[in-house]
From TrEMBL:
Keywords: NADP, Oxidoreductase. GO terms for molecular function: oxidoreductase activity, acting on the CH-OH group of donors, NAD or NADP as acceptor. Belongs to the short-chain dehydrogenases/reductases (SDR) family. This is Uncharacterized protein. It comes from Tribonema minus. The keyword NADP applies. The lineage of its organism: Eukaryota, Sar, Stramenopiles, Ochrophyta, PX clade.
Amino acid sequence: MSARVGIVTGANKGIGLEIARKLGREQGWLCVLTARDEERGRSAAESLLSEGAGVRFRQLDISDPDSRERFAKDAEQEFTAGIDALVNNAGFAFKGSDPTPFAEQAEPTMDINFFSTVATTERLLPLVKRSPHGRIVNVASMSGHLRIVPDAELRAKFASAGQPGGLGHDELMLLARGFVQDVKEGKHKEKGWPNSCYGMSKLCLIAYTKILAAREPTLKVNACCPGYVATDMSGQQGHKRPDQGALTPFMLATGALDGTSGGFWSDEKRIDW
Ligand SMILES: NC(=O)c1ccc[n+]([C@@H]2O[C@H](COP(=O)([O-])OP(=O)(O)OC[C@H]3O[C@@H](n4cnc5c(N)ncnc54)[C@H](OP(=O)(O)O)[C@@H]3O)[C@@H](O)[C@H]2O)c1
Protein backbone atom coordinates (compact mmCIF):
# COMPACT_ATOMS: atom_id res chain seq x y z
CA MET A 1 0.00 0.00 0.00
CA SER A 2 1.37 3.45 -0.85
CA ALA A 3 1.99 5.98 1.89
CA ARG A 4 -0.52 8.66 2.74
CA VAL A 5 0.64 12.06 1.56
CA GLY A 6 0.65 15.11 3.83
CA ILE A 7 1.61 18.56 2.58
CA VAL A 8 2.74 21.29 4.96
CA THR A 9 3.14 24.90 3.84
CA GLY A 10 5.73 27.23 5.37
CA ALA A 11 7.52 24.23 6.85
CA ASN A 12 11.15 25.38 6.80
CA LYS A 13 10.97 26.58 10.42
CA GLY A 14 8.79 27.11 13.46
CA ILE A 15 5.54 25.21 13.92
CA GLY A 16 5.46 24.08 10.26
CA LEU A 17 8.82 22.34 10.59
CA GLU A 18 7.56 20.48 13.66
CA ILE A 19 4.32 19.44 11.91
CA ALA A 20 6.50 18.16 9.03
CA ARG A 21 8.73 16.28 11.48
CA LYS A 22 5.72 14.59 13.10
CA LEU A 23 4.13 13.71 9.75
CA GLY A 24 7.41 12.39 8.35
CA ARG A 25 7.92 10.18 11.41
CA GLU A 26 4.36 8.85 11.34
CA GLN A 27 4.12 5.26 10.15
CA GLY A 28 2.58 5.05 6.68
CA TRP A 29 2.92 8.76 5.86
CA LEU A 30 5.07 10.72 3.43
CA CYS A 31 5.48 14.38 4.29
CA VAL A 32 5.91 16.96 1.54
CA LEU A 33 7.75 19.78 3.28
CA THR A 34 7.19 22.97 1.33
CA ALA A 35 8.81 26.38 1.67
CA ARG A 36 8.95 29.53 -0.43
CA ASP A 37 12.74 29.66 -0.20
CA GLU A 38 14.41 26.76 -1.99
CA GLU A 39 17.57 26.75 0.12
CA ARG A 40 15.86 27.05 3.51
CA GLY A 41 13.32 24.39 2.55
CA ARG A 42 15.90 21.91 1.23
CA SER A 43 18.08 22.29 4.27
CA ALA A 44 15.08 21.74 6.61
CA ALA A 45 14.02 18.64 4.65
CA GLU A 46 17.58 17.28 4.73
CA SER A 47 17.75 17.65 8.49
CA LEU A 48 14.49 15.67 8.86
CA LEU A 49 15.68 13.04 6.36
CA SER A 50 18.87 12.57 8.40
CA GLU A 51 16.63 11.74 11.39
CA GLY A 52 14.96 9.03 9.32
CA ALA A 53 11.71 10.90 8.62
CA GLY A 54 9.84 10.24 5.35
CA VAL A 55 10.12 13.70 3.85
CA ARG A 56 10.34 15.24 0.39
CA PHE A 57 10.98 18.93 -0.32
CA ARG A 58 8.99 20.95 -2.88
CA GLN A 59 9.13 24.72 -3.42
CA LEU A 60 5.82 26.49 -2.78
CA ASP A 61 5.34 30.21 -2.29
CA ILE A 62 1.63 30.32 -1.56
CA SER A 63 1.45 33.99 -2.61
CA ASP A 64 2.98 33.39 -6.05
CA PRO A 65 0.45 32.11 -8.62
CA ASP A 66 3.25 30.61 -10.79
CA SER A 67 4.69 28.74 -7.83
CA ARG A 68 1.21 27.47 -6.84
CA GLU A 69 0.56 26.29 -10.39
CA ARG A 70 3.94 24.57 -10.74
CA PHE A 71 3.52 22.86 -7.38
CA ALA A 72 -0.03 21.69 -8.18
CA LYS A 73 0.92 20.38 -11.65
CA ASP A 74 3.87 18.42 -10.21
CA ALA A 75 1.69 17.09 -7.38
CA GLU A 76 -0.90 15.85 -9.90
CA GLN A 77 1.85 13.81 -11.59
CA GLU A 78 3.51 12.68 -8.41
CA PHE A 79 0.58 11.88 -6.14
CA THR A 80 -1.91 10.24 -8.46
CA ALA A 81 -3.81 8.71 -5.52
CA GLY A 82 -4.37 12.20 -4.14
CA ILE A 83 -3.31 14.29 -1.16
CA ASP A 84 -4.47 12.93 2.19
CA ALA A 85 -3.77 16.03 4.27
CA LEU A 86 -3.07 19.64 3.36
CA VAL A 87 -1.81 21.63 6.33
CA ASN A 88 -2.02 25.36 5.62
CA ASN A 89 0.55 26.55 8.12
CA ALA A 90 2.36 29.36 6.24
CA GLY A 91 1.62 32.65 7.91
CA PHE A 92 2.83 36.15 8.53
CA ALA A 93 2.46 38.85 11.18
CA PHE A 94 3.96 42.32 11.41
CA LYS A 95 5.96 42.78 14.59
CA GLY A 96 4.68 45.46 16.99
CA SER A 97 7.93 47.37 16.37
CA ASP A 98 7.55 47.33 12.54
CA PRO A 99 7.55 50.88 11.15
CA THR A 100 5.09 49.99 8.32
CA PRO A 101 2.02 52.27 8.77
CA PHE A 102 -1.11 50.40 9.88
CA ALA A 103 -2.87 51.44 6.64
CA GLU A 104 -0.31 49.40 4.70
CA GLN A 105 -0.37 46.33 6.93
CA ALA A 106 -3.75 44.87 5.92
CA GLU A 107 -2.87 43.98 2.35
CA PRO A 108 0.25 41.82 2.94
CA THR A 109 -1.21 40.22 6.07
CA MET A 110 -4.55 39.35 4.47
CA ASP A 111 -2.74 38.26 1.31
CA ILE A 112 -0.60 35.56 2.95
CA ASN A 113 -2.84 34.41 5.79
CA PHE A 114 -6.13 34.49 3.92
CA PHE A 115 -6.29 35.14 0.15
CA SER A 116 -3.22 33.06 -0.75
CA THR A 117 -4.14 30.29 1.67
CA VAL A 118 -7.58 30.11 0.05
CA ALA A 119 -6.07 30.17 -3.47
CA THR A 120 -3.64 27.36 -2.59
CA THR A 121 -6.42 25.29 -1.05
CA GLU A 122 -8.79 25.76 -4.00
CA ARG A 123 -6.03 24.81 -6.47
CA LEU A 124 -5.16 21.63 -4.56
CA LEU A 125 -8.76 20.74 -3.66
CA PRO A 126 -9.33 18.25 -6.53
CA LEU A 127 -6.27 16.30 -5.36
CA VAL A 128 -7.41 16.32 -1.72
CA LYS A 129 -10.85 15.10 -2.87
CA ARG A 130 -9.19 12.24 -4.74
CA SER A 131 -8.06 10.76 -1.42
CA PRO A 132 -10.66 8.70 0.46
CA HIS A 133 -9.35 10.33 3.66
CA GLY A 134 -8.92 13.95 2.50
CA ARG A 135 -8.28 16.49 5.23
CA ILE A 136 -7.49 20.19 5.30
CA VAL A 137 -6.03 21.85 8.38
CA ASN A 138 -5.92 25.63 8.56
CA VAL A 139 -3.50 26.93 11.17
CA ALA A 140 -5.37 29.99 12.40
CA SER A 141 -5.16 31.68 15.79
CA MET A 142 -7.14 32.67 18.85
CA SER A 143 -6.52 36.21 17.54
CA GLY A 144 -9.16 35.34 14.94
CA HIS A 145 -11.87 34.75 17.57
CA LEU A 146 -15.28 36.19 16.66
CA ARG A 147 -15.26 38.39 19.76
CA ILE A 148 -12.65 40.70 18.16
CA VAL A 149 -15.32 42.11 15.79
CA PRO A 150 -16.86 45.12 17.56
CA ASP A 151 -19.87 45.50 15.26
CA ALA A 152 -22.64 43.04 16.25
CA GLU A 153 -24.11 42.78 12.76
CA LEU A 154 -20.75 42.02 11.16
CA ARG A 155 -19.98 39.53 13.92
CA ALA A 156 -23.29 37.74 13.33
CA LYS A 157 -22.55 37.59 9.62
CA PHE A 158 -19.20 35.86 10.21
CA ALA A 159 -20.77 33.59 12.83
CA SER A 160 -23.19 32.29 10.18
CA ALA A 161 -20.34 31.05 7.93
CA GLY A 162 -21.10 27.65 6.49
CA GLN A 163 -24.63 27.47 7.91
CA PRO A 164 -27.58 27.05 5.52
CA GLY A 165 -28.38 30.54 4.22
CA GLY A 166 -25.35 31.93 6.08
CA LEU A 167 -22.17 33.62 4.92
CA GLY A 168 -20.87 31.97 1.75
CA HIS A 169 -17.59 31.99 -0.16
CA ASP A 170 -18.20 34.98 -2.45
CA GLU A 171 -19.57 37.19 0.30
CA LEU A 172 -16.62 36.28 2.53
CA MET A 173 -14.21 37.34 -0.22
CA LEU A 174 -16.06 40.65 -0.59
CA LEU A 175 -16.00 41.29 3.16
CA ALA A 176 -12.27 40.48 3.32
CA ARG A 177 -11.51 42.85 0.41
CA GLY A 178 -13.70 45.47 2.09
CA PHE A 179 -11.66 45.21 5.29
CA VAL A 180 -8.40 45.75 3.36
CA GLN A 181 -9.84 48.77 1.58
CA ASP A 182 -11.28 50.28 4.77
CA VAL A 183 -7.91 49.93 6.54
CA LYS A 184 -6.18 51.61 3.58
CA GLU A 185 -8.62 54.50 3.80
CA GLY A 186 -8.38 54.71 7.59
CA LYS A 187 -12.11 53.94 7.91
CA HIS A 188 -11.99 50.46 9.44
CA LYS A 189 -12.96 51.51 12.95
CA GLU A 190 -16.01 53.52 11.87
CA LYS A 191 -17.07 50.54 9.70
CA GLY A 192 -17.06 48.26 12.75
CA TRP A 193 -13.90 46.28 12.00
CA PRO A 194 -11.34 45.35 14.65
CA ASN A 195 -8.00 47.13 14.80
CA SER A 196 -6.05 43.95 14.00
CA CYS A 197 -5.02 42.92 10.49
CA TYR A 198 -3.59 39.63 11.76
CA GLY A 199 -6.75 38.91 13.77
CA MET A 200 -8.99 39.64 10.78
CA SER A 201 -6.85 37.45 8.49
CA LYS A 202 -7.24 34.50 10.84
CA LEU A 203 -10.94 35.23 11.47
CA CYS A 204 -11.54 35.12 7.70
CA LEU A 205 -9.56 31.86 7.52
CA ILE A 206 -11.76 30.29 10.20
CA ALA A 207 -14.90 31.47 8.37
CA TYR A 208 -13.50 29.93 5.16
CA THR A 209 -12.85 26.67 7.02
CA LYS A 210 -16.53 26.48 8.00
CA ILE A 211 -17.74 27.36 4.50
CA LEU A 212 -15.44 24.79 2.86
CA ALA A 213 -16.41 22.09 5.37
CA ALA A 214 -20.09 22.63 4.52
CA ARG A 215 -19.36 22.66 0.78
CA GLU A 216 -17.22 19.49 0.82
CA PRO A 217 -18.92 17.01 3.14
CA THR A 218 -16.61 14.12 2.14
CA LEU A 219 -13.59 15.98 3.55
CA LYS A 220 -12.57 16.86 7.08
CA VAL A 221 -11.75 20.55 7.12
CA ASN A 222 -10.75 22.12 10.43
CA ALA A 223 -9.00 25.21 11.79
CA CYS A 224 -6.92 25.49 14.94
CA CYS A 225 -4.88 27.74 17.16
CA PRO A 226 -1.46 26.23 17.94
CA GLY A 227 -1.20 28.26 21.15
CA TYR A 228 1.38 30.93 21.98
CA VAL A 229 4.52 29.35 20.59
CA ALA A 230 8.16 30.43 20.79
CA THR A 231 8.99 30.99 17.10
CA ASP A 232 10.32 33.84 14.99
CA MET A 233 6.75 35.10 14.60
CA SER A 234 6.34 35.61 18.34
CA GLY A 235 9.90 36.91 18.76
CA GLN A 236 10.59 33.56 20.53
CA GLN A 237 8.28 34.76 23.34
CA GLY A 238 5.63 32.01 23.39
CA HIS A 239 5.24 29.65 26.36
CA LYS A 240 4.93 26.56 24.12
CA ARG A 241 7.78 24.94 22.20
CA PRO A 242 7.21 24.56 18.43
CA ASP A 243 6.79 20.78 18.81
CA GLN A 244 3.99 21.44 21.34
CA GLY A 245 2.42 23.96 18.94
CA ALA A 246 2.45 21.28 16.24
CA LEU A 247 0.34 18.82 18.27
CA THR A 248 -3.14 20.10 17.38
CA PRO A 249 -2.48 20.62 13.63
CA PHE A 250 -0.88 17.16 13.48
CA MET A 251 -3.83 15.58 15.29
CA LEU A 252 -6.25 17.26 12.87
CA ALA A 253 -4.23 15.93 9.92
CA THR A 254 -3.84 12.34 11.10
CA GLY A 255 -5.83 11.57 14.26
CA ALA A 256 -9.28 10.14 14.95
CA LEU A 257 -11.77 12.96 14.48
CA ASP A 258 -15.07 11.07 14.67
CA GLY A 259 -16.28 12.81 11.53
CA THR A 260 -15.74 16.30 12.92
CA SER A 261 -15.42 18.92 10.22
CA GLY A 262 -15.74 22.70 10.26
CA GLY A 263 -14.40 22.97 13.81
CA PHE A 264 -12.06 25.41 15.51
CA TRP A 265 -9.59 23.60 17.79
CA SER A 266 -7.05 24.38 20.49
CA ASP A 267 -5.03 22.03 22.71
CA GLU A 268 -6.47 19.09 20.72
CA LYS A 269 -10.04 19.99 21.72
CA ARG A 270 -12.83 21.58 19.73
CA ILE A 271 -13.62 25.01 21.10
CA ASP A 272 -16.22 27.72 20.54
CA TRP A 273 -15.38 30.32 17.96
N1 LIG B 1 3.84 31.43 17.05
C1 LIG B 1 2.65 31.65 17.59
O1 LIG B 1 2.54 31.97 18.80
C2 LIG B 1 1.40 31.46 16.77
C3 LIG B 1 0.16 31.66 17.42
C4 LIG B 1 -1.03 31.47 16.70
C5 LIG B 1 -0.94 31.12 15.36
N2 LIG B 1 0.27 30.95 14.74
C6 LIG B 1 0.27 30.55 13.32
O2 LIG B 1 1.07 29.39 13.16
C7 LIG B 1 1.61 29.35 11.83
C8 LIG B 1 3.11 29.11 11.91
O3 LIG B 1 3.70 30.23 12.57
P1 LIG B 1 5.13 30.21 13.27
O4 LIG B 1 4.93 30.75 14.62
O5 LIG B 1 5.78 28.90 13.08
O6 LIG B 1 5.84 31.37 12.43
P2 LIG B 1 7.26 31.48 11.71
O7 LIG B 1 8.31 30.79 12.51
O8 LIG B 1 7.40 32.91 11.38
O9 LIG B 1 7.05 30.63 10.36
C9 LIG B 1 6.20 31.07 9.35
C10 LIG B 1 6.43 30.20 8.14
O10 LIG B 1 5.54 30.64 7.09
C11 LIG B 1 6.33 30.82 5.93
N3 LIG B 1 5.72 31.73 4.97
C12 LIG B 1 5.38 33.02 5.11
N4 LIG B 1 4.88 33.49 3.96
C13 LIG B 1 4.87 32.46 3.07
C14 LIG B 1 4.47 32.32 1.74
N5 LIG B 1 3.97 33.34 1.03
N6 LIG B 1 4.59 31.11 1.14
C15 LIG B 1 5.08 30.07 1.82
N7 LIG B 1 5.52 30.14 3.10
C16 LIG B 1 5.41 31.33 3.71
C17 LIG B 1 7.68 31.32 6.44
O11 LIG B 1 8.67 31.21 5.44
P3 LIG B 1 10.04 32.09 5.49
O12 LIG B 1 10.96 31.41 6.45
O13 LIG B 1 10.50 32.03 4.06
O14 LIG B 1 9.66 33.47 5.93
C18 LIG B 1 7.86 30.34 7.59
O15 LIG B 1 8.29 29.10 7.12
C19 LIG B 1 1.24 30.69 11.19
O16 LIG B 1 0.11 30.52 10.37
C20 LIG B 1 0.91 31.56 12.39
O17 LIG B 1 0.03 32.62 12.04
C21 LIG B 1 1.44 31.11 15.43
